[in-house]
Design brief:
The chain is of the alpha+beta class. The protein has a domain of 68 residues. 26% of the residues lie in helices and 18% in strands. The protein has a three-stranded antiparallel beta sheet with strand order 1-2-3. A hairpin with a 3-residue loop joins β1 and β2. The longest helix has 22 residues.
Length: 125
């Protein structure tokens, strides 16, 4: 009778963390951390509103079903993220770098919808 080899599962290994640098700012930039996104929920948003207090920024996300024309129904906020200003500044930097990389690869993103919409051709007949 032949013996079946045992199955072994690979255990995820933590990412290596570099030795601390003499400069604390450099150590913070080079430090890697583990992130467990197994319980993260993804949602789509084409609407964002930012409000805040002296201590925190409140970022609301939702879906605008009428992005063009006159708004006739309320935009339902589905996600709210609250961050302190230090985290907001790090988020701003990360988003800025990501958008710069995207634009260098694919061209400048036009945020004015009216400039992106092509005028319709009138049908003659």
């Amino acid at each position: 009778m032949a013996k079946t080899p045992e199955k072994t599962e690979a255990t995820p290994q933590p990412a290596p963390v570099p030795a601390p640098a003499s400069d604390p700012a450099q150590a913070q930039r080079t430090q890697q951390m583990q992130v467990d996104a197994s319980k993260a929920q993804a949602c789509y948003s084409n609407f964002c509103r930012v409000t805040g207090t002296p201590e925190e920024l409140i970022i609301d996300f939702g879906l605008n079903s009428q992005p063009m024309g006159v708004q006739t129904e309320a935009i339902h906020v589905t996600q709210r993220i609250i961050v302190n200003y230090f985290t907001a500044k790090r988020l701003l930097s990360a988003l800025h770098m990501s958008v710069q990389r995207h634009e260098s690869a694919f061209g400048v993103l036009e945020t004015d919808v009216q400039k992106r919409v092509k005028p319709s051709v009138l049908r003659q007949g």
